[in-house]
Design brief:
Layout lengths: L7 H5 L6 H22 L11 H12 L5 H18 L1
C-alpha cells in the first residue's frame, strides 16, 4: 500500500497508541471541549452556543480507521453524560 493512501493512524503505527488509549484520550478531550464550549456560551442561557466536541468528533473520526469509529463514539458517551450530569 502506498504511504500517500494511508490514514495518519496507519502511518504512525499501531504501537504508537493502542485503541484503548486513543479512546480514553478522546473522551478526556471531548469533556474538556464541552467545558470550554460552556465557558464560551452566554451565561444564564439554557443551551450551549458553541458545541466544540462536534468538531473534535469529526476530526477524530476522519483521522482514524472506520473500524475504530464505534469504540471512539462509545468513548464520547460517558464524557457527554458526565458533562450533562455536572451541568
Amino acid at each position: 500500500m502506498n504511504r500517500a493512501n494511508q490514514k495518519p493512524a496507519d502511518v504512525i503505527g499501531e504501537a504508537a497508541l493502542s485503541a484503548w488509549w486513543r479512546a480514553g484520550l478522546f473522551a478526556l478531550a471531548y469533556f474538556f471541549c464541552a467545558e470550554a464550549g460552556n465557558y464560551l456560551s452566554v451565561r444564564g442561557g439554557t443551551y450551549i452556543s458553541f458545541w466544540l466536541p462536534a468538531g473534535l468528533t469529526v476530526a477524530v473520526l476522519l483521522l482514524n480507521r472506520t473500524r475504530d469509529w464505534p469504540g471512539l463514539l462509545l468513548a464520547a458517551l460517558p464524557a457527554n453524560l458526565l458533562f450533562d450530569y455536572l451541568h
